[in-house]
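Q: What structure does this chain adopt?
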Amino acid sequence: MIGKKLSHYTILGPLGAGGMGEVYRARDEKLGREVAIKILPVEVRSDEEKLRRFVREAKAASTLKHPNTASIFELGQADGVDFIVMELVDGETLDAMIKKSVSDATKIAELGIQIAGALEEAHSAGIVHRDIKPSNIMVNSRGQAKILDFGLAKIADPVFSDSELPESSKMKTASGTIIGTIHYISPEQALGKQIDGRSDLFSLGIVLYQLATGRLPFEGHNMVQMLDSILHSRPIPSGQFNPGLPASLDRIIMRCLEKDPARRYASATEVIQALQFVKNNQTLPITKQIADTLALRPGGKLLLILSVVVIIIGLFLHRFLTTSDQQIIKSIAVLPFANQGSVPDSDYISDGITEGIIDRLSRLPNLKVMARGTVFTYKGKLSDPRKVGRELNVDALVTGSVLHQQDSLRIRADLVRASDGTQIWSEQYIWKTADLPKVQVRIAGEISEQLRSRLTGEERRKINKRNTQNTEAYQLYLRGHYYWNKRSVTGFQRAIDCYQRAIQLDPKFALAYSGLAETYTLMPAYAMLPPKVGHPKAKAAAQKALEIDPDLVEASTALAHTQHNYDWDWQKAEDNFRRAIQINPNYANAHHWYGNLLSEWGRKEEAIAEKQLALKLDPLSLIINADYGFILYEARKSDAAIEQLKKTIELDSHFSLTYQYLAFVYQQTSRYPEAIASFQKARELEPESLEIRAQLAHVYALCGRHKESRNILKELLALTSTEYVASFDIGMIYAGLGEYGIAFEWLEKAFEERSYQITALKVEPRLDFLRQEPRFQEMVRLLNIPRK
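A:
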């Protein structure tokens, strides 16, 4: 055909072929422009009924003047050849775009709006395309989509046999079986039923799914399997292959792919409205154009009246749901996902998924999210959502389970209203273990879409932010955080190893650096590492994390903790605590550690307020509850401190730190027998703790049991050559024994070591008997505590 003339058109070269014939690039010699010419196949030309129907539909399609429709210029015949002349669209097909990469949500929405716009006009003219697919849609250099072959693509029976499929439109599967455009037909089209515009919307859903995922929603190795999939299989939600996809776009695609046409969008207009929501990230108004479109349909006036009524009712319900305290979700708890797998030592995955969802939801403004310490008290327990909701005083709960088998994860997540236990939302996911870094992103995004009528771009960015693309690094981070939460010497050491290995795999993994910082800054506080070893490492890791991700609140908080307890830079520490709280007001640990700073600074009421905020976010956290009792003790509120610490023991009678703090309060009020009993209970729970032994020796000395005190002192002094024993603790024993000269030598050594207890010199009640000593006053002065 190259060089041949058809009427006044010169054939320049082939463009492709489709179900209705071959397509060529040609030059219109009369008008001096290039066009596309489709040569109709013999079976159409030789069948009068098919040709008559083709001519009728071609004439109807030629009336379409939409900017996203390739125009039909002429229906002609020359030298016994029937042909159609169409607009030549330069660019690439959606098919070619999909093969390159998946598209982002904005681009998908924009292309979908354009395609649906063309369908909207066609459907209003009574034309159903019947062959919407990526190879029938061109995108020019300006990003404008053009649908080809309106009304021409399918005039044969709804289902093609393999032999009837044109070679150019066939697709080879992995098994080598030949399948064609059957991938894009709707269920009603496949069954030979009467079709309308909603059939095109099903095909459009497949196109959008491909743009979002790079794959087809329905699969089969042969035509029978393919048809069965289209008719009976529910596609995996597109968001599971592209976790960055907004949940709203995922729902639009899935609604287009409903088997029952009645469950799809009623029109292309509705699809446009929904996609505009994704494109503009805002609720669409009911415009005059939409009202006119409704009015133009058969029975349109009635439909318009009904639509207005529905809108009014909808607005009323929206107002009610967003103002009723009983309906709006202002607070939520993510309960630990149950580990249902048989893979050994895989709790770190279910725990990590839970914590990741908590972290991401806590970034949303105006939503209170219960912190890890509280929700993990429910781990392994079957609890009534209504009961848990009352206990935690939250509006909704997220529950779920994780089944980890070899290289796959099966995850179920449910959003439940706490007031009555009704299910708001539920979803199941099947992931490869390699996709673990994406899991929390996807689930948190789905939940947040349920909680908010819309998310701002910044909210979506916070929810969707990825930490690492390296699956092995992420798994190591989850393991590290799992061990970190055990707060033991072995746990901290294992956590450090996991974090360091994660960083080796991904040197830009900010969370792993943050995990290192949190570990190294806590180990001196637990007397597991000398401050001069732990804190510089903590500071370096935190600064590296913030260099990679300046908004990482865990890193800001760890840095502030080290600036407080080691650098004694009170103002910088406060600035970083406040910055972390500003970025994420739901981060309980920032309020918790900031409260400690304020207490030691002497700002008692502010300290108590911060601890109370931390407790609102993490009411069942043992460490926050115990520390709240401790700052009440530092504020000389001994009765309130005892009450708080006893409440903490009721939460968990096996947390040794609570007994230590309670002993301090008893010691403060000279109730030495009770103080000794409380220290002994703490020692039973933590028999390896050198700190508890030293504290017990101190109270023994105060109540006259000097022999027992000196025996412990002798043991601790012997250990200083092989283990880290806090100099502060040794000094306190000597002070209790009345040997103040030696006590000050050890306290000054602790000052030089920067022991974590030194920052509390100004307020620690156990040191009251030393306050008038000039050497003590000089140490307080050297702490550089600002006046406020």
